[in-house]
Specification:
Blueprint lengths: L1 E4 L2 E6 L11 E6 L4 E4 L7 E6 L5 E6 L2 E6 L4 E7 L1 E5 L5 E6 L2 E10 L2 E10 L12 H12 L1
Antiparallel strand pairs: 1-2, 2-3, 3-4, 5-6, 6-7, 7-8, 9-10, 10-11, 11-12
């Protein structure tokens, strides 16, 4: 997967090594400076990258975890268990899937770096607060992914 945004490209690369299992990594390429950075350093099988609108944060999944890398501070925040991360354009939160449901975690930049703000929320909850099913869960994902 390659997506270009403000002169930055996010790559998911799967090297092929004979005799070793395949793993993948998430790379960020600054098209102006031609510098490439491994955003998923230390995490095997990283995939499904998402980058915020300022090109500061890159979210990705690695195994069963959703992580967010702060490219400026060079730190990685473990958001939680899940898959298919989608950062908000302003980097203030992230939506991700787990167990057929959509969850949302607010994020905050502090003097110590990127942190979770509050508890994760079940974004695909039905009217009574129970997990949604079918089209309601898909609709919640669409709403969270576009805000």
């Amino acid at each position: 997967m390659v997506s270009a945004l403000r002169g930055v490209r996010v790559h998911r690369h799967e090297p092929c090594c004979s005799g070793r299992p395949l793993s993948s990594g998430v790379y960020v390429r600054n098209l102006a400076s031609r510098a490439t950075l491994l955003a998923s350093a230390g995490h095997r099988s990283a995939e499904r990258p998402s980058i915020d609108g300022r090109c500061r944060y890159v979210a990705f999944e690695a195994g069963i975890l959703v992580l967010v890398r702060d490219l400026h501070a060079r730190r990685t925040l473990r958001v939680g268990r899940g898959s298919e991360p989608d950062l908000q354009t302003d980097g203030a939160g992230i939506a991700y899937a787990r167990g057929g449901q959509v969850y949302y975690q607010a994020l905050q930049l502090t003097g110590r770096g990127l942190r979770k703000r509050g508890a994760e929320r079940l974004a695909s909850a039905g009217r009574a607060g129970a997990p949604a099913t079918g089209s309601a869960a898909v609709q919640a994902w669409t709403i969270m992914a576009t805000t």
